Recover the amino acids of this structure.
């Protein structure tokens, strides 16, 4: 099995090293990751400047781009053949609920999914210390399962692991994405040493809506959260409501007058 590993914390991150080490037990591992931290890069693709690939070993490459760039270059240029699996992480910190839309970690798995490759995003919650061994150990078991049963079409797995050592994990839950309560104080405004105003986004701790079976609820209860995420962003329940608009917003056709010849 050929496994492509990437992340958004950069190729030097301890999380990607822990993941690569674990994955070597189940397959041939290639690491293709950003040359620096790209956290919150989202699903961005570099289109307006050249990208450089640097070889850091036989199967390790850094890329001067985003996680999405890495998956593209890996699949189309670096790897000897199409990978069987893309694993992104282990991210330093959770990627829960709405945060998946900002996440470079999850976006790399989205890119893998778009290319038709089974993909998993792994995030380890924590503060100063991160129990990457907990994520790595679970990843190994999960990948054996994925290899055996495959994944539903167009679906990636977003995995979040609680801030606990492996023996303290209470179990695993299949979850939905949670919903943040957005705080209007989320932007911090300060002054720099030269008296100019600057802003800092995302300074505050976030609160979550009370919902059942969410990823956030699972990790808070010591359970590993696995959320199936699909890339079709269509809101199917809204289709019926909005179809009523079709008639109202259809332009009224006027009878066309013959254009006068000059
Ligand atoms: Mn990150």
């Amino acid at each position: 099995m050929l496994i492509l590993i990437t992340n958004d914390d950069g190729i030097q991150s301890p999380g990607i090293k822990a993941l690569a080490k674990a994955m070597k037990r189940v397959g041939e591992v290639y690491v293709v990751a950003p040359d620096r931290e790209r956290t919150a890069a989202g699903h961005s693709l570099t289109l307006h400047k050249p990208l450089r690939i640097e070889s850091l070993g036989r199967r390790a490459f850094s890329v001067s781009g985003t996680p999405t760039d890495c998956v593209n270059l890996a699949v189309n240029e670096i790897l000897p053949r199409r990978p069987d699996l893309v694993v992104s992480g282990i991210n330093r910190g959770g990627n829960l609920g709405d945060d998946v839309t900002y996440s470079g970690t999850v976006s790399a798995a989205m890119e893998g999914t778009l290319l038709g490759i089974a993909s998993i995003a792994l995030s380890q919650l924590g503060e100063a210390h991160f129990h990457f061994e907990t994520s790595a150990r679970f990843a190994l078991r999960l990948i054996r399962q994925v290899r055996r049963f495959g994944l539903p079409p167009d679906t990636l797995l977003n995995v979040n692991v609680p801030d606990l050592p492996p023996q303290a994990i209470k179990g695993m839950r299949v979850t939905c994405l949670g919903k943040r309560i957005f705080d209007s104080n989320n932007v911090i405004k300060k002054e720099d040493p030269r008296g100019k105003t600057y802003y800092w986004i995302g300074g505050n701790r976030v609160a979550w809506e009370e919902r059942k079976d969410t990823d956030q609820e699972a990790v808070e209860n010591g359970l590993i959260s696995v959320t199936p995420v699909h890339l079709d962003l269509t809101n199917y329940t809204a289709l019926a409501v909005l179809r009523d608009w079709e008639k109202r917003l259809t332009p009224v056709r006027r009878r066309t007058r013959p254009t006068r010849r000059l």
In short: The CA atoms of residues 15 and 132 lie 6 Å apart. Residues 2-179+210-235 form a domain with the Stationary-phase Survival Protein Sure Homolog; Chain: A, fold (CATH 3.40.1210.10).
